[in-house]
Amino acid sequence: MSKKRIAVIGGDGIGPEVTKQGVKVLEKLGQITDLNFEFENFNIGADHYLETGELVTDEVKADLTNFDAIYLGAVGDPRVKPGVLEHGILLDLRFSLDQYINLRPIKLLDSKFTPLKDKEPKDIDMMIVRENTEGLYAGVGGFFKKGTKDEVATQEMINTYKGVERVIRYAYEYAQKRGKENKLTLCDKSNVLTYSHDLWQRVFKEVGNNYSDVEKHHMLVDAMTMKMVRNPEVFDVVVTCNMFGDIITDLGAEIQGGMGMAVSGNINPEGVSMFEPVHGSAPDIAGQNKANPLAALLAAAMMVEILGNPEEAQMIQKAINLSLAENQTTVDMGGKLTTDGVGDYICSVLG
Amino acid sequence: MSKKRIAVIGGDGIGPEVTKQGVKVLEKLGQITDLNFEFENFNIGADHYLETGELVTDEVKADLTNFDAIYLGAVGDPRVKPGVLEHGILLDLRFSLDQYINLRPIKLLDSKFTPLKDKEPKDIDMMIVRENTEGLYAGVGGFFKKGTKDEVATQEMINTYKGVERVIRYAYEYAQKRGKENKLTLCDKSNVLTYSHDLWQRVFKEVGNNYSDVEKHHMLVDAMTMKMVRNPEVFDVVVTCNMFGDIITDLGAEIQGGMGMAVSGNINPEGVSMFEPVHGSAPDIAGQNKANPLAALLAAAMMVEILGNPEEAQMIQKAINLSLAENQTTVDMGGKLTTDGVGDYICSVLG
Ligand SMILES: CC(C)[C@H](C(=O)O)[C@@H](O)C(=O)O
Ligand SMILES: CC(C)[C@H](C(=O)O)[C@@H](O)C(=O)O
């Protein structure tokens, strides 16, 4: 029986409420399977920042590397300037823990959730593999003659061979294993970004030589967004840079039902990974026991899967499918349950 | 009676066939209104490039500035390496003629054209104002240790105060005049692009001080794509940078019916502007008299409007609406007409 140590960062707003459901469900899973979880809460977020001025200290980062995974709720608080918590917590953790893969499944569970006409669950079922530590997110740039009419502002999109190679290789592996069509699409803007995305093109070809069984496709990012709303069924696994990944994963989240169902894994395959619902902290409904915990539960399922337990992950996934089919959901999803109520329902379905 | 001199660049593939319809319709318009057009054809495109090695020479560029507008079909040919014609013609013209505004109307004409559920023409009706000469399109960047495992590739997003100010001012003016809700949304990624999009944020506020009657909104690009497919009705005028504009205008084109209906104006308010259908050269159907000319006709209407004749532009627009309502369209749009047939129909409706 293997024990998994999970660091829980509830964070801000509805974050702690929804991760609480995840912890409850994982504890239940521990009772009925061979899995065993141990949780430790980390006090990271707006309150802690406003009290102490600290975001994530080096000590905390070092501590986090001792865990098997991080389970994150949400960060963001109206009392803190926009960007501060996102940079100081989310992006800082991704970068310092070198979580170079952002895994974003796009999977429609019921036709009623998509804003697209005539699309069924089988049509919207892809995995987006986003580079998570480079590109326009490098934070490199500057101002020249700032504040004058001659101002120039620059922002650098930086990619390294190492960074591009590892995410593309991961995506090929994923396409090989996923069991849909063994198809990988590179999404870029190589016709305009003739430096940074030329590197992506070359590496995609080079690494692809080792994956002759994977069907290779290319799509420019502008065409990609069109295809996603007209013919999402053509996609299996998609690999893309950090910035375009940010955009197309959110578009993907929407076509599969919106933020209530969207989950994000920040993966370091050789280190500690972090799993989170994509939604924000929703301060307006925090503490009212009405936040929808399904995305947080899907994040918990993804964590279980990436930790090497796909069958147990499926158990959570199936329980979630049932909650949707039976309308055992919160009000925003068409049901009548509280946040706690949904968590309890999932636990009861599990056994 | 004012004479407008139009430079026609038919270009590649279906380009010449569809601009031919536009010329025919404008000639007809000249017969029944006070407007008067004179056309000159420019031999620019793949054939010319393959014969002579020339794309757009300095002489041609100088000549083009003597026209009132440029009417472009499409560029792109399978015999030419991808990127060459796009850069050497499209982007080169935009940059050298300083067409700093890319105007992309997103307007649904009939519910049946959108892939979105439950959206009517009134719900999808916005104007995207894209910066067209800066940002990631600057073409600045490079390689370090190219071809090695230590390679670094950079691509610079460069914005100038001048470039950002003029497009934002244009967008405010547009929002004021457009007659929908006097609403302008800035779409950026200022929470991550803390240099280049910080400039956008500052200029948006500063210029906005002169437009107290325009309602100001801000949306991050990732959230923007979600909103566009879930609630496109919230948008009136949107202003954004070159790269994000490329992406969201194509997404916009799709939600209003796809490439068959999408049009793009490359505007230099103080110089010569260029109007084009958004679709490509579609070499597979070139020369078969079956290409859909409606986007090219919409581009002609936009040209007439920007040249200062909104009423005459409306005449073309109404004729197009009628052709859709009466299924007087090409096969891809559900009709039975040829390319020529659609042009003739529009002319006959005009009078
Ligand atoms: C909060 C923000 C910095 C973040 C990003 O841009 O990566 C978010 O949009 C995401 O996709 O996880
Ligand atoms: C062809 C390409 C270079 C161009 C662009 O990226 O601007 C096109 O996508 C457009 O939007 O007009």
Provide a descriptive summary of the structure in words.
Two copies of one chain form a homodimer. Chain A has two domains: 1-99 and 272-351, Isopropylmalate Dehydrogenase, CATH 3.40.718; 101-267, Isopropylmalate Dehydrogenase (3-Layer(aba) Sandwich), CATH 3.40.718. Chain A contains eleven helices and twelve strands. Chain A has helices spanning 15-32, 46-52, 58-64, 84-96, 161-178, 196-208, 221-230, 242-255, 294-306, 310-325, 339-350; strands spanning 3-11, 36-41, 69-74, 101-107, 125-131, 141-144, 152-160, 183-188, 215-220, 237-240, 263-267, 273-277. In chain A, α5 crosses α6 and α7 packs parallel to α8. Chain A is globular. At the A-B interface, α4, β6, β7, α5 and α6 of A face α4, β6, β7, α5 and α6 of B. The structure holds 3-isopropylmalic acid (2 copies).
- Binned, the helix content of chain A reads 40-55%
Mean pLDDT of chain A: 97
- Count of helical segments of chain A? 11
Q: Tell me, what is the CATH class of the largest domain in chain A?
A: Alpha Beta
Low-confidence stretches of chain A: none
- Count every beta strand of chain A, where a strand is a DSSP E run of 2 or more residues: 12
What percent strand of chain A? 15-25%
Rg of chain A, alpha carbons = 20 Å
Under CATH, the homologous superfamily of the largest domain in chain A reads Isopropylmalate Dehydrogenase
The CATH topology of the largest domain in chain A turns out to be: Isopropylmalate Dehydrogenase
Tell me the number of structural domains of chain A. 2
Measured distance between first and last alpha carbons of chain A: 19 Å
Q: Could you give a short account of the major beta sheet of chain A?
A: 10 strands, mixed
Named once each, the bound ligands are: 3-isopropylmalic acid
Cofactor (chains A, B): Mn(2+); Mg(2+)
Keywords (chains A, B): Amino-acid biosynthesis, Branched-chain amino acid biosynthesis, Leucine biosynthesis, Magnesium, Manganese, Metal-binding, NAD, Oxidoreductase
Domain Isopropylmalate dehydrogenase-like (chains A, B): 5-346
Pfam families (chains A, B): Iso_dh
